[in-house]
């Protein structure tokens, strides 16, 4: 069975983080996508995310892992981690590793707070209340625009510089 790129990215995130919940996985995918615009000038995968109550969600991946609820996804081990390594470049893999290091170190709840402060989710939800359901697509253009802005604002030149952004975001959400 040939996996879609988003499924491969999700598998790598699950395997490398070792302890990721479905909520944190969704946010990690969003950050992989966002930072792919910064470093590769294009989306890493084609799927769109939706502006759900708890932040950006890739519905197909949500459906696959929703039974884990608030528990870590534990199905990735060396036996079912296989994928066609030609579908991920070394640079893409480096980005995913950095997302594991600088994003997946936070809980899903903290990452949800990050995304609730970011323009793509806020703009897409518009006038909806914080509890209103939505399946509105967060446009890739909004994601790209936002992440290119944070590239400039946080002086993100190398993949490791993602930490510049996450450190500030963590301070911001802890002050709320």
Question: What does the model show?
Answer:
This protein is mainly α and 176 residues long. It is 54% helix and 5% strand. The radius of gyration is 15 Å and the shape is globular. The chain has one domain (5-174).
Briefly say what this structure is.
By secondary structure, the protein is mainly alpha-helical. It has helices at residues 5-17, 22-40, 59-65, 90-102, 108-116, 119-125, 140-153, 162-174; strands at residues 49-52, 55-57, 137-138.
Helicity range of the residues? Answer: 40-55%
Distance between the termini: 45 Å
Mean pLDDT equals 93
User: How many helices?
Assistant: 8
Give the percentage of residues in beta strands.
5-15%
Quaternary: single chain
Quick tags:
globular; 5% strand; 3-stranded antiparallel beta sheet
SSE layout and pairings?
Elements: H1 5-17, H2 22-40, E1 49-52, E2 55-57, H3 59-65, H4 90-102, H5 108-116, H6 119-125, E3 137-138, H7 140-153, H8 162-174
Antiparallel strand pairs: 1-2, 1-3
């Amino acid at each position: 069975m040939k996996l879609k790129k988003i499924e491969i990215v999700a598998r790598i995130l699950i395997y490398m983080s070792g302890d990721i919940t479905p909520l944190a996985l969704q946010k990690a995918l969003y950050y992989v996508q966002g930072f792919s615009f910064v470093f590769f000038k294009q989306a890493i995968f084609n799927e769109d995310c939706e502006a759900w109550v708890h932040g950006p969600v890739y519905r197909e991946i949500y459906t696959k892992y929703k039974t884990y609820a608030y528990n870590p996804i534990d199905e990735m081990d060396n036996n079912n981690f296989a994928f066609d390594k030609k579908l991920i470049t070394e640079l893409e893999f480096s980005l995913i590793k950095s997302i594991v290091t600088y994003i997946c170190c936070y809980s899903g709840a903290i990452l949800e707070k990050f995304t609730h402060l970011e323009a793509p989710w806020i703009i897409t939800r518009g006038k909806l209340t914080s509890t209103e359901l939505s399946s509105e697509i967060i446009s890739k253009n909004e994601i790209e625009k936002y992440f290119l802005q944070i590239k400039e604002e946080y002086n993100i030149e190398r993949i490791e510089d993602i930490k510049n952004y996450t450190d500030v975001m963590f301070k911001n959400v802890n002050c709320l």
